[in-house]
Amino acid sequence: MTDIHMPRLSDTMEEGVISSWVKKVGDKVEPGDILVEIETDKAVMEHEAYDEGYLVKQSVSEGDTVPIGAVIGVLGDSPDAEVAEESDATAAPAGEATGETPASQPAAGEATDGRAPGREAEESAPASSGEPAPATPPSPDGGPRPRTSPLARRLAREYGLDITTIQGSGPKGRVVRADIEAAAKEQRERPAPEAEAEHAPAERAPVSESTTGGTHDEVRGSEEVTVSNIRKVIARRLLEAKQTVPHFYLRRTIEAEALRAFRAQVNEQLESTGNKVSFNDLIVKACATALRLHPEVNASWVDDRLLVHRRINVGVAVAVPEGLVVPVLHDADKTPLSEIATKSRDLAERARDGKLKPPDMSGGTFSVSNLGMYGMDSFSAVINPPEAAILAVGAMRQEPVVRDGEVVARNTINLELSVDHRAVDGAVGAAFLKELAEILEEPMRIIL
Amino acid sequence: MSVITYRQALRDTLRAEMLRDEDVFLIGEEIGVFEGSYKITEGLLKEFGERRVRDTPIAEEGFVGTAIGAAMLGLRPVVEVMTINFSLLAIDQIVNHAAKVYGMFGGQTSVPMVIRTPGGGGQQLGATHSQNIELFYSFIPGLKVLAPSGPADAAAMLRAAIRDNDPVLLLENLGLYNSKGEVPEDDEPVAEIGRAAVSREGSDITLIGYSRMASVATQVAQSLAEEDISVEVIDLRSLRPLDRETIVESVCKTGSAVIAEDDWLTYGIGAEIAATIQEGAFDFLDAPVRRVAMAEVPLPYAKPLESAALPSAESVTTAVKETLNAVGRRVG
């Protein structure tokens, strides 16, 4: 029994209309035979059979519209083969499956950072939401593996997508890069399931009520706010971080006089270019330099394994209206300071405009979170797994400090490093923070 | 720069190298009085005399062996084997002597010899005179095999081959001798042996070829550019050593590859390239690597059959488009 799916017939196609069935139920079908004519957003196209058999079911009637990947018909070995229950046209299309798919847990090390809806969102959907099973359920008991290109598999891991839920558009249904990118785009653009429910027909409303435990709370006068997928991802990931990552914290205050002078000097040099380096850029670059000297902090604890990363990719937490995203400056150790400045400005702008792409937010090996602009003296940041550490940067303030027995006013910044104790021990973390503090106090070392 | 033929580039380089280094001499069948079956040695007997341009009997094993001996004693012979098909008569000398002497005698002497020889079908020369058996030599450690696809490379690689201390087989191509291109007029540059060239940058797919097929690949890329398909062309240039890095880097960028080769598919050069790609770029592949090669037959003499058996711009174009279709680019 072979399902026939609504094919992706153009790059922009999202759904197709069954224009007419060329084969009738019971007809013999050879590979290459025209099965059905499908109307897309562009044209009416003939769809050929890939397999031989008999058409035993037309799951979608002529004139009806279904999304890409939905089952439109079934081929059987004989004209009167029994049609299995799950082969149903109402099956979810690619990328919207909600069932558990144990065969495809992405490795934690591949988890994505501050990412808008990935597979996390799928998992968060209750299994009993009434959604039917995926059109082609991956078989946990060793059934045929879906055809996927190696590139598609790698991208699915990077995007945090479950490849077994994605319908392939390549030969014999092979999932290729284009399918993953389309699915990732769809995930990004799709509203949260609850938001969908609000616009859904009335019979869906009780589902929403029952899963949220009521939307109104008279005693507290509460009202439920529709949350975005990104908010859910943040909630899930931070909970996971705090529950599974044993944090410890290291604090150090640095004197920032030299850093101020250095920044002024750098910006004077850059004046003609219109580029400007911020304190945060200097701190990011200093972190990269310090990580190069202490690679053991540039690491991840994943599934009882310790990974030390060769590349130094520093994430910078950026507040956006929906919450928080962490775009990543890849190879920050190899990137010149002026380029760190332009790149991080571009990433922050795109973050606020919601235009970050998944690769912009993936692959981080260390993060920096700066609440100095909000006047915070210091704070303890939550680690962004699978990274092993995050640096929390406070505001620059004039403080009394003792120098040569005298109390003098100096600009200072409080740094606090949150560290995953599974990957990095106290002394190692301390050596890193000490190095970082010394680099920032002797800022020429930032660019050496 | 001047625009000259592949043939002229080879001839000018031979002459320049003979002027540059007295130890360089030429040896082969009909290269002197007849000035070469393909006129690569035109005028050189007249200019340099019989001592440095030596006609030989029709005895490949003999004159290749002679050249190996001369090279071991310090000369720099450039052997012309009329076509690569005739190298079969000298294969024991090449494989068991030229390639082995340096290693088997503990490095006491190297063999700074060049064998220039054209391959290639398409000239209606029949099955025994139209083969592409460079694979036999590319397989042998101890040999270097270069395959220039244009006049500038022909000059730079011949120069590099003559100046290299190891035995080098320079694969020429009958179908390329009349091709034209810009060649620098002085005796630079010397090609880096073992370095492929990205002869055209692109982003959609990597198309890999060498010798004639590298030139066909460039034509295909040019015509596909008009259909908004961006093909990256890699000219292997050196079959041994093979520049795996350039191949892998390109496929990592484009996600798919087609290999165009003038030899037979089964066990051919393309098989090695495909293996290189899957070893180095597995996680970046979005489609199976495709190979376009000669039909698995002794090359027919009849023109229509010969043309049908050889890989062509059309067959390469089809493979490129089919591969792009397989990764979701819907192209014609």
From TrEMBL, chain A:
Kindly indicate whether the keyword Acyltransferase belongs to this entry.
yes
Q: Where is the composition biased (Pro residues)?
A: 134-143
What GO terms describe the biological role, i.e. biological process, of this protein?
Answer: pyruvate decarboxylation to acetyl-CoA
Where in this chain does the record put each Lipoyl-binding domain?
1-76
Q: Which domain of life is it from?
A: Bacteria
Q: What PROSITE patterns does the entry give?
A: BIOTINYL_LIPOYL, PSBD
Q: Which InterPro entries match?
A: 2-oxoacid_DH_actylTfrase, Biotin_lipoyl, CAT-like_dom_sf, E2/Pdx1, E3-bd_dom_sf, PSBD, Single_hybrid_motif
Region of interest (Disordered), ranges: 81-150, 184-223
Instruction: Give all residue intervals belonging to the Peripheral subunit-binding (PSBD) domain.
Output: 147-184
Enzyme class of the recorded protein, top EC level: transferase
EC number(s) recorded for this UniProt protein:
2.3.1.-
Q: What is this protein called?
A: Dihydrolipoamide acetyltransferase component of pyruvate dehydrogenase complex
Required co-factors:
(R)-lipoate
Family stated for the protein in its record: Belongs to the 2-oxoacid dehydrogenase family.
| MF terms (GO), sorted A to Z | acyltransferase activity
The yes or no answer to whether the keyword Acyltransferase is present is yes
Cellular component per GO, a single term: pyruvate dehydrogenase complex
Organism of this sequence: Halostreptopolyspora alba
| Keyword vocabulary terms for this entry | Acyltransferase, Lipoyl, Transferase
Biased region (Basic and acidic residues) positions are 112-122, 184-202
Q: Where is the composition biased (Low complexity)?
A: 89-103, 124-133
Which Pfam families does the UniProt record give?
2-oxoacid_dh, Biotin_lipoyl, E3_binding
From TrEMBL, chain B:
Alphabetized UniProt keyword annotations:
Oxidoreductase, Thiamine pyrophosphate
Which segments of the protein form a coiled coil according to its record? none
Q: Which Pfam families match?
A: Transket_pyr, Transketolase_C
Which domain of life does this protein belong to?
Answer: Bacteria
MF (Gene Ontology): magnesium ion binding; oxidoreductase activity
- The record places domain Transketolase-like pyrimidine-binding at 4-179
* Cofactor field: thiamine diphosphate
UniProt keyword Oxidoreductase present: yes
Does the keyword Cell membrane feature in the UniProt annotation? Answer: no
Q: Which PANTHER family match?
A: PYRUVATE DEHYDROGENASE E1 COMPONENT BETA SUBUNIT (PTHR43257), PYRUVATE DEHYDROGENASE E1 COMPONENT SUBUNIT BETA (PTHR43257:SF2)
Q: Which NCBIfam families match?
A: PRK09212.1 (NF006667)
Q: What is this protein called?
A: Alpha-ketoacid dehydrogenase subunit beta
